């Protein structure tokens, strides 16, 4: 069963050929957010788990074993701090729409007047 136009399903292929300037010349990888996160997790957690399970042993991993062990915790903390910074920035730069607020107030007044004509009593 095909998905409606503009909709994607889990069965969609993530690698597609893109027609650029009339020629089939380029490959473009179209990744969903899930695929991006999974790729990042594999690229980080794969080597990390190899070091933690002592599959990879060298002087560097022996010297910095504790730091390597705590690396995922550090990543989660940094992710949280970046998320808080992004939210704070977006709240700080949030724009007020005075015209839209005035239009909404006018529509509320009109609705109250219309309801009052129909016999509904409002506070």
SSE blueprint and pairings:
Elements: E1 15-20, E2 23-29, H1 33-52, H2 59-63, H3 65-69, H4 71-92, H5 98-117
Give an account of the 3D structure.
- The longest helix is centred in the middle third of the chain and has 22 residues, at 71-92.
- 59% of the residues lie in helices and 11% in strands.
- It is rod-shaped.
- It has a two-stranded antiparallel sheet with strand order 1-2.
- The protein has helices spanning 33-52, 59-63, 65-69, 71-92, 98-117, and strands spanning 15-20, 23-29.
- The relative contact order is 0.05.
- It is mainly alpha-helical and 123 residues long.
- Mean pLDDT is 82; it is low at 10-15.
Give the key terms:
123 residues; mainly alpha; two-stranded antiparallel ribbon; 5 helices; membrane; endoplasmic reticulum; DPM3; transmembrane helix; Dolichol-phosphate mannosyltransferase subunit 3
**For the largest beta sheet, what order do the strands appear in spatially?**
1-2
Radius of gyration: 27 Å
Q: Report the helical percentage.
A: 55-70%
How far is the first residue's CA from the last residue's CA?
54 Å
Mean pLDDT: 82
Coarse structural class: mainly alpha
Oligomer: single chain
What's the β-strand tally?
A: 2
- Any low-confidence stretches, pLDDT <50, length ≥5? 10-15
Largest β-sheet summary: 2 strands, antiparallel
Number of helices: 5
Summarize the structure.
The protein is mostly helical.
């Amino acid at each position: 069963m095909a998905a409606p136009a503009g909709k994607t399903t889990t069965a969609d292929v993530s690698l597609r050929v893109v027609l650029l300037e009339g020629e089939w010349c380029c490959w473009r990888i179209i990744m969903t957010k899930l695929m991006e996160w999974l790729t990042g997790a594999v690229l980080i957690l794969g080597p990390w788990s190899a070091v933690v399970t002592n599959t990879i042993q060298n002087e560097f991993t022996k010297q910095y074993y504790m730091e390597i062990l705590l690396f995922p915790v550090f990543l989660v903390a940094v992710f949280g701090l970046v998320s808080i910074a992004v939210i704070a920035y977006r709240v700080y730069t949030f724009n007020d729409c005075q015209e839209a607020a005035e239009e909404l107030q006018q529509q509320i007044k009109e609705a109250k007047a219309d309801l009052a004509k129909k016999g509904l009593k409002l506070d």
